[in-house]
Amino acid sequence: MPVENRSHLRAAAASDLVRMDTKITPELNNALNELVLATGVSKASLVRAALAQYLAARGVLPPDHPDLIEPTPTRGPGLASQRKDTR
Q1: Residue 68 in contact with residue 61, Cβ under 8 Å?
Q2: pLDDT of res. 35
Q3: Count of beta carbons in the 10 Å neighbourhood of residue 48
Q4: Closest of 62, 4, 24 to residue 32, by C-alpha
Q5: Which of 16, 24, 26, 52 could form a disulfide with 67 if both were Cys (CB 3.0 to 4.6 A apart)?
Q6: Taking the mean position of all CA atoms in its chain, how far away is CA 28?
Q7: What per-residue confidence (pLDDT) applies to 16?
Q8: Mean pLDDT (10-residue bins), the chain, 87 residues
Q9: Cα 24 → chain centroid
Q10: Among 87, 23, 25, 75, which residue's Cα sits nearest to residue 45?
Q11: Is residue 66 within 8 Å of 12, Cβ to Cβ?
């Protein structure tokens, strides 16, 4: 019996992530900032989750893709720009 390749189901490690720079409107940025403050989830996690949902809805990501799980809060409170550098 052939073994199904389910490597797409594992969560991406930080080293597996690809940098993508983009520009968004001030309104989207403000909305993201509000959501970060309300949920404690990082902007990057929210954007990854939204993109995964968009791609899955259009059939280009499998419905069981790990990026479709609910993002979890970050360790620090609020926006990264408001945190004190602890290094």
Answers
A1: yes
A2: 92
A3: 16
A4: 24
A5: 52
A6: 15
A7: 82
A8: 43 77 96 92 90 91 82 66 53
A9: 16
A10: 75
A11: yes
pLDDT at 64: 84
pTM exceeding the 0.85 threshold for the entire prediction: no
Task: Return the number of other C-beta atoms located less than 10 Å from residue 31's C-beta.
Answer: 13
Neighbour count for residue 39 (Cβ, 10 Å): 15
Six-digit token string for 48: 């990854």
* Residue ranges per structural domain of the chain: 24-73
| Distance set, CA 34 to CA 15, 37, 52 (Å) | 28, 5, 21
Residue type, 72: T
- Asked if 55 contacts 47 with a C-beta cutoff of 8 angstroms, the reply is no
